[in-house]
């Protein structure tokens, strides 16, 4: 997946503090788009899980936060890119409870459930790109 | 270093998390709380998360682990003040907070700890 959306805000994911700042940026974007408190909370929680993965497993990377427009629908998209070791077994990584680190194994699977759209691209040695979107209900 | 204050109320400890938690801060709180349980001979721990906008799997794990450690040290943990949006999100995330008792607010949490002590 190449990333070339010019409207996206690029946020670094290199420290714990970056994760906190990223959550705040996602919140601001969700509020600006008029999302409900529950949808804000879901998207920020998903962002927090994925940002942690980028930091812990990917060795840090960037997040791209963008406003989405599809017809009359508005949404928020968030893409995490790292150049870490990649995920050798994607179906396994998406299984609840599976963890290669010290987490609870809910990062990827939980983020997938919390978002409306979820895409994951990864290969050993190629890094990982995860994209999630949340669409505003009419 | 940034730290979350722990208040002593009788034989209980009260922690009110009022900042956006990052992972290191969560780990520091876990260590501080277990040390204080021993030092203050606390029988109960109240963790107030009413000011927290999100609880992700890492914070959830910290809370579960803290409750498990507290139990081994003969103290009971009650998590209080969870916002409805946080509860909805936790269920969807798949986090069960195993072994953690919850109450609506600090007052009800104190009642629950007192009942347990009797």
From TrEMBL, chain B:
Write down what this protein is called.
STAS domain-containing protein
PROSITE patterns documented for this protein: STAS (PS50801)
UniProt cross-references to Gene3D superfamilies, sorted A to Z: STAS domain
- SUPFAM superfamilies (alphabetical): SpoIIaa-like
Matching Pfam families, A to Z?
A: STAS
Organism placement in taxonomy: Bacteria, Pseudomonadati, Pseudomonadota, Betaproteobacteria, Burkholderiales
List, for all copies, the residue spans of the domain called STAS. Answer: 2-113
